[in-house]
Amino acid sequence: MLHATNGIVLRTIKYGDTSIIVTIYTEVFGVQSYLVNGVRTDKKSKTKANIYQPATLLELVVYHQPNKNLQRIKEARVYYLYQSVQSSVVKNAIAIYMSELIFKTITEPEQHQDLYDFFESSFQLVDINLDNDLADFPIQFTIEMAARMGFGMQLQENNHHTLFDLMGGRFVALHDTSHTHLVTEEMSMILANMLKSEAITLNHDKRQELLSVCIQYLRLHIPHMSELKSPEVLHAVMS
């Protein structure tokens, strides 16, 4: 049966001599993999294959059979044309990070409208903002994503609770030795300020460290999440 849905391309891999397998986070069916035949045969076909680059926002008409590993696409077109994501090294690195993070964390073929809307708007925000305004965006995206997936980081409720417990998702007292996944006091305070949406200025190294903390938090709460490759590129291109 044919269905219309929007979708965000997360990953594309080659399949055989002429085809590709595209993983897409769809608005209607959650994460789905699609076999797209014959898009690597000639110049015209390869142009069609370009719309399946990670982070592309697509409007799709798909064949959908429940419990099938590989679905088929009848029609696909770009419904939001990026103005600067492809030309900006910084924005492209952020978009690739977001795509990989979604791919590594979400595997369920289930509709989640709130999560889809958040992802879609986040990619568009990357596109319309200036490079210099996006320095903390990967961190903010990761924190917000965790919250929308049901295990958000809790705000600091007590000034004496100065260490963030990654496993518990909350701030705890310095003398509390019952926790095994604690963040340093300095990084905990930076995280506390960010969770309260307070203005903070981070240098490159602190920003990299905080993003690593947020990724570690996700990995503790999502057992199937494997290591990410994109942060290395992200840190290399961002000041």
Please tell me about this protein's structure.
The chain is an alpha+beta fold and 239 residues long. It has two domains: 1-81, Beta Barrel (OB fold (Dihydrolipoamide Acetyltransferase, E2P)), CATH 2.40.50; 88-239, Up-down Bundle (de novo design (two linked rop proteins)), CATH 1.20.1440.120. Helices cover 37% and strands 22% of the residues. It has helices spanning 43-49, 89-105, 113-128, 137-148, 185-195, 204-221, 230-237; strands at 2-15, 19-26, 30-36, 57-63, 71-80, 163-165, 170-172. The strands form two sheets. A five-stranded mixed barrel has the order 1-2-3-5-4. A hairpin with a 3-residue loop joins strand 2 and strand 3. Helix 3 (113-128) runs antiparallel to helix 4 and helix 4 packs parallel to helix 6. The longest helix has 18 residues, at 204-221. The N and C termini lie far apart (48 Å). The model has no long low-confidence stretch (mean pLDDT 92).
